[in-house]
Amino acid sequence: MTTYTGPATGAPDGFLWGASTAAHQIEGGNVNTSHWEFEYADDTTVAEPSGDACDSYHRYPEDIALLAASGLRAYRFSIEWARIEPEKGVVSRAQLDHYRRMIDTCRDAGVEPVVTLHHFTVPRWQGRDGGWYADDVVDRFRRYTETATRILDDVEWVVTINEPNMMVNQTEAKIDTEQGVNFPGPSPHVARVIADAHHAATEVLRGFGGVKSGWTVANQVYQALPGSERKRDEWGYWREDFYLEQARNDDFIGVQSYLRTIIGPDGPVPFPDDVERTLTGWEYYPEALGHALRHTREVTGGVPMLVTENGMATADDARRIDYTTGALQGLASAVADGCDIRGYLHWSLLDNYEWGSYRPTFGLVHVDHDTFERTAKPSLGWLGDLARRNVLPAA
């Protein structure tokens, strides 16, 4: 097994070590979402539809067993609104039971479930009514959260909404990972609506019991060229900082970090051609996580942080380990500086559907998308070894 043998420091007591996934990206056959409609529309811009994905809807026990066997002890996954509420006001008890079985499978394996209520996709009926532009979407999301609490009685960590800033900041909330993030201009109106939905959900969850609730924000690590600091701050507010501000009264905030964005006088500037890039076209920059954690603490005022996504799209697993080592060194440094960080959940457990293509491989586990055979990569055992020892790589 590949193990880390370099300088190390102890992780905080009770630190959560795990990996993350999202329902639409791994379950397969998620036919009742508006994103499935988009993937198969005649005029779609999606190069490759999700189809069967990783068939994790049926194979989740194997996925959880692989994670647990490695030494990891937390699994972040999302439940699918479109399955639970297939028509407006219609609740599927069978689908609630399905996700409850996922929670029970985690518990039986000694794995802490971290449950996300919304990870980019909405039901077809919600999409047709305008998605986050629908007049009553906040109330709909509140009711969906109330429905979800039926299966969350022993779940400690609940994410309300994944990366709201990415949904708002992309045209029609369509995700195009391989082409990078294109900003047509964020909508403050939709930002406030999604924030209201988040606050409605946290209100429900606070009245429910011992749940810790928060949302996750994609931290872009905005760095200014000399003289462009004001432009950086203006550019970043509705694309990131607004969402961090909304978390100031939450139990925790999920930090999601992959890259940095350099801001010049007119906005983002391209990187030189000779910069190392990942399979998503992003700059190889593991230092981003440390920057993201410090910035999040600064804006939120010290809300506890859980790294809910961090990883690298690469076909070279040794390079994935290199990237993760650098990212965890940044995390260790942030802990030493007093940042309250409760855990690290790697993106992703599986090579999954990256919103338009299976080509970018983030997984700790390879998935053959013809046979669905799972094969653990060395990086899974490497990260699991750190988890067993509860140590962080030190610079």
From TrEMBL:
One CC-aspect GO term: cytosol
One Gene Ontology molecular-function label: beta-glucosidase activity
Any coiled-coil regions, as ranges: none
GO terms under biological process: carbohydrate catabolic process
Keywords: Glycosidase, Hydrolase
InterPro entries hit by this protein: GH (IPR017853), GH_1_N_CS (IPR033132), Glyco_hydro_1 (IPR001360)
Stored Pfam families: Glyco_hydro_1
UniProt keyword annotation of Hydrolase present: yes
Family: Belongs to the glycosyl hydrolase 1 family.
UniProt protein name: Family 1 glycosylhydrolase
Native source organism of the sequence: Microbacterium radiodurans
